[in-house]
TrEMBL record:
Taxonomy, superkingdom: Eukaryota
Species this chain originates from: Orbilia brochopaga
CDD domains referenced in this protein's UniProt entry, alphabetically: F-box_SF (cd09917)
InterPro entries named among the record's database cross-references: F-box-like_dom_sf (IPR036047), F-box_dom (IPR001810)
Protein name, entry field: F-box domain-containing protein
Span of domain F-box: 6-41
Record-annotated membrane-spanning stretches: none
Amino acid sequence: MPTGVTSLPVEILHEILSQEFLDEQDLCNASLACKAFTPIAQEYLPRDGDIMLRNSDAGQLVSMLRNLLANERFRGRFTNVEIDWGFRLYQHEITTPPPDKYKWTSEERAVLAILFDENNFHKRWRSAVEDIVEPAALLVPIICQLTNLRKLHIGKPNTGSIEMRRIYSSAWTTHLEELIERVIPPQREGDEGGALDPKAVVTSFPKALRGLTTFTRAYYADDDGFNIDAVIPIFLLPNMEVVELTTFGGNFNTLSRFDGSDFRCPVKRIEFHELECWSDEVARFFRFCEALEVVNVSLVYIGVGVVEDEEELEEAFSIVPMQEALMEKHKGTLKEAMLEAERNYWWFKRRGSKVRGGWKPTWWGNEDWDD
């Protein structure tokens, strides 16, 4: 006669976990409650590869990280991750989980230590994760374990505005940006150009990020946008195809570190919304790309210090350098393009063997393709 759950026949365990009233959270809890449940519960969990993580949901993040630490097969399940921070949360509203409920076991701490060393985690990140100082800090170790990760969405580009930026925590964005930015060694004074090999830089990425094909980064905050140099390494990933960024600034200074290389960025679709940058620098980035197909860029003054005063706006936000770079380098592959700067527009569209372009936004979508 069975004396406990572990002694029950597998058929009965399946019968228990296949009940319709059990949701995904119940199955996750069951997989953690008993080793006998773990392999069976995994069979009933959704396998579509998509997951949304909330940077304020401590329970979800701790449970997710605990599952990843315990089960290697679970690490390869997710291909598309979206970080949801679509609501405002102040520091005093953060619900940090009680230490007695979410205390890492010695086995989990051992796995975490290996993860920290493999991905060169800063000591303050380690402390934030080990002590669960802030739930958002758990997102980086979670991301670093998703071995089949292909799409990473941080916020929702093209849905925000300068007046409606919303995010409470710097732990997630700071840790992730440092993780990405640190794969490129800083250029020290006296270095001979500080030239780098892009392929060597990619090997410094966490293994889970090397297979990314899509990266989106939106910035919702009460201060200025993020710096483009914080995510430049993303453009070096060999399989990267789509990059969408919102509310940021800078001048692509890091690109000069690759001047001696014949490497070209493989990205096919780029969308830069609310970018404060000199158009000459954007044109330089276009030339750094191999074969762009879809381009959407809007230059706007957001106060990140790239454009010093309004007198520079007309010169800084000229569309001509960007348009010339696209036509010079990507006319053969370009399918759609929209460039916007200070209420000036330029668009390009291809249909079959015919192309159309112009400087008036009202033409977009009303082209005559018959002639």
